[in-house]
């Protein structure tokens, strides 16, 4: 069963069409990766799902309910939350304040669960978020989105700007989050890391999905290897 279903989605910014007939499914309980280079429309897709951008045509349904062009706060209330590109934490607030702010109606009782998933944040509760390392800021961004116990978590370029060891740590956390019952849609330029953890994947080029299938099959596809894995299928 598809938790998220996107059909023939088109999004334009003024006269420029950014997304062109995008169709994508996120099965319940899965990790789905959307791959592609910078500027192909991945972030636009995420922001349209979240209600930040408006779609011109097509449909998006979440848990069987149409959500295209619903206000963002209503989409969050349905159980769909996003950890945005660039983290967008409140750098002058403490780690705990960032988390509580993300909780909304869920309340601060979620904090204990977050501390278990992100013990490094539990050690820095009173620290200003802006003083955290890049990897810790990314953890805080993800943790803040999880405070509302979403059914679906959108992750926009979570590995951006991180050292390889931190990338591995972030993707291990993504696996653990899915193990807790949260479905995940992740957009990434780091195709190698994303394909290791995803169940399904799609490739975007110029605002379109040009290739989609099981992640294991895409890892073995020579077109993916050539374009995104440096010509090496495995490794």
Largest sheet: 6 strands, mixed
The poorly predicted ranges are: 231-235
Architecture of the domain at 1-79 and 152-161 and 183-235 in CATH?
3-Layer(aba) Sandwich
What strand line-up does the widest sheet have?
Answer: 6-7-8-3-9-10
Please report the number of helical segments: 10
Helix amount = 25-40%
The count of strands amounts to 10
Shape: globular
Helix/strand/pairing class, anyone?
A: alpha/beta
Rg is 17 Å
- CATH class category name of the domain at 1-79 and 152-161 and 183-235: Alpha Beta
Mean pLDDT: 91
Order of helices and strands: EEEHEEHEHHHHEHEHEEHH
CATH fold field value of the domain at 1-79 and 152-161 and 183-235 = Rossmann fold
- Within CATH, the superfamily of the domain at 1-79 and 152-161 and 183-235 carries the name P-loop containing nucleotide triphosphate hydrolases
Distance between the termini: 32 Å
Percentage beta strand? 25-35%
Note down, in words, how this protein is organized.
- There is one protein chain.
- The chain is an alpha/beta fold and 235 residues long.
- It has ten helices and ten strands.
- The protein has a six-stranded mixed β-sheet, with helices on both faces.
- Helix 3 packs parallel to helix 6 (134-146).
- The chain is globular.
- It starts with a strand and ends in a 7-residue tail after the last helix.
């Amino acid at each position: 069963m598809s938790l998220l279903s996107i059909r023939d989605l088109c999004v334009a910014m003024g006269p420029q069409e950014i997304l062109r007939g995008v169709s994508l499914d996120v099965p319940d309980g899965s990790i789905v990766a959307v791959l592609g280079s910078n500027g192909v429309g991945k972030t636009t897709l995420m922001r349209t799902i979240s209600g930040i951008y408006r779609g011109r045509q097509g449909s998006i349904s979440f848990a069987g309910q149409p959500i295209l062009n619903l206000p963002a706060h209503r989409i969050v209330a349905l159980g769909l939350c996003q950890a945005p590109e660039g983290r967008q934490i409140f750098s002058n607030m403490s780690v705990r304040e960032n988390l509580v702010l993300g909780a909304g109606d869920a309340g601060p009782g979620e904090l204990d669960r977050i501390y278990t998933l992100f013990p490094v944040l539990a050690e820095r509760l009173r620290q200003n978020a802006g003083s955290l390392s890049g990897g810790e800021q990314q953890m805080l961004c993800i943790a803040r989105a999880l405070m509302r116990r979403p059914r679906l978590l959108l992750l926009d370029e979570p590995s951006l700007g991180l050292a390889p060891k931190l990338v591995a740590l972030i993707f291990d956390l993504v696996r653990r989050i899915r193990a807790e019952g949260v479905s995940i849609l992740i957009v990434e330029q780091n195709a190698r890391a994303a394909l290791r953890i995803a169940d399904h994947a799609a490739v975007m080029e110029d605002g379109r999905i040009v290739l989609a299938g099981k992640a294991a099959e895409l890892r073995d596809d020579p077109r993916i290897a050539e374009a995104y894995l440096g010509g090496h299928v495995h490794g």
